[in-house]
Write a structure and sequence with these properties.
alpha+beta, single chain, nine-stranded mixed sheet, 13 helices, 32% helix
Length: 377
């Protein structure tokens, strides 16, 4: 591990335009923690390595692991149709064809709901009004699921290539409630968060993040200028798909425990690592298992984990297959690139700076080049 190089790379992300970046890297028994920049652009309050953060779709690994624990106990069948458990939510042919496994690996064909829950994002160019209108809105998971099911299918159930959708994990949350008789959030806490010894990870009870945390600035591809703080937000719009808050230390601890077989058994972990190509929300293709990304880094090995974004916050957490190298990185600015006339946002200095931080954090040499997982949301 190169602490000075990690310091320089993390500071480079801040200097490239991110208000604050904080991270933890573990390499065997050595640990580096760093924080550069500010948690609040108005007051200049600095970020610190132990801050809590909204970690977005990293929540999906927690939800998937909880489902697999119920599979181990015989309450859920991976290849059982979801309509067997939730006929009122997924009725008819879809309920008979879509299995629990298809929800976990995004091959259900159910499209994502987010742009329809935030209708101003459907305009060209998108507008931010919906983000403000929904700041304190309490969504019902059943309504969001219905929203996704009423859209044209994104594919056939069980297709060899999946399409990423948060609706899949909202359904898995309802499945957990159906088979356990408790809330999905309580089930995930009891079965995964507490056994992993995560003291700073949990689902928010309201729109506020408990404990020290940064403000979280959304730029919406340059449309919100200056970027606006959305750290106070009701996370019911993503629920069991992306609502967790955590620290970088807790995320490294969680993925280390998961890959070591201390959260689910080896057979369940093998199922979680069975990947197929999935089209992410940014249009890229990722290798996705059951709530896990697979990332092969030349010269460094195979890493497993997830990324996550919510309004104003981005997080990446990857752990090498043997658990020896772990990286978790948080930033408090997201969607920084302005659109251009091409197919997507142009490359920004932040992109290159993050790539360099990931390279160093994962143990790469200057010649090592890799792209982080696709943008899942």
């Amino acid at each position: 591990m190169d602490p000075a190089g990690l310091d320089a790379a993390a500071d480079g992300v801040h200097r490239a335009g991110v208000p604050g970046v904080f991270a933890e890297v573990r390499d065997g028994d050595r640990t580096w923690r760093g924080a550069f920049g500010v948690a609040d652009v108005t007051t200049g309050r600095p970020v610190t390595p132990d801050m809590r953060h909204r970690v977005g779709s990293i929540t999906k690994t927690f939800t998937a692991a909880t489902v697999m624990r119920q599979v181990e106990q015989g309450r859920i069948g991976l290849d059982t149709p979801i309509g067997t458990y939730l006929p009122h939510l997924v009725p008819g042919e879809r309920g008979r064809r879509i299995t629990v496994r298809m929800l976990l690996n995004h091959t259900s064909g159910i499209p994502d709901h987010i742009r329809h829950a935030f209708p101003s994002l459907l305009e060209n160019p998108p507008r931010p009004e919906s983000l403000d209108d929904n700041r304190f809105r309490r969504f019902r998971a059943a309504d969001l699921i219905r929203m996704g099911l009423e859209l044209p299918p994104a594919g056939e159930p069980g297709s060899p290539t999946g399409v990423y959708s948060n609706v899949n994990y909202l359904l898995l949350g309802r499945l957990l409630e159906e088979v356990t008789g408790t809330t999905a959030e309580r089930c995930i806490t009891r079965d995964v968060i507490e056994p992993a010894g995560l003291r700073h990870t949990g689902f928010p009870a309201g729109p506020h993040v408990e404990g020290p945390h940064p403000r979280m600035y959304e730029a919406l591809y340059g449309i919100i200028d200056p970027p606006r703080d959305y750290s106070v937000y009701d996370m019911s719009w993503v629920g069991t798909g992306a609502a967790l808050t955590s620290t970088m230390a807790d995320l490294n601890r969680f993925y280390g425990a998961l890959l070591a077989g201390r959260i689910v058994g080896e057979a369940s972990l093998a199922q979680m690592r069975r990947t197929l190509p999935v089209r992410a929300l940014d249009g890229s293709t990722i290798e996705y298992g059951l709530g896990l990304h697979k990332v092969d880094v030349p010269g460094c090995g195979t890493f497993w984990g997830h990324d996550g974004t919510v309004w104003g916050a981005g997080t990446m957490s990857l752990t090498r297959a043997d658990g020896g190298r772990r990286m978790s990185v948080a930033i408090n600015l997201i969607r920084w690139s302005r659109p251009d006339s091409g197919d997507g946002p142009p490359r920004h200095p932040i992109d290159d700076a993050l790539k360099e931080l990931y390279r160093r954090a994962l143990g790469g040499t200057p010649e090592t080049s890799h792209q982080p997982p696709g943008h899942t949301g």
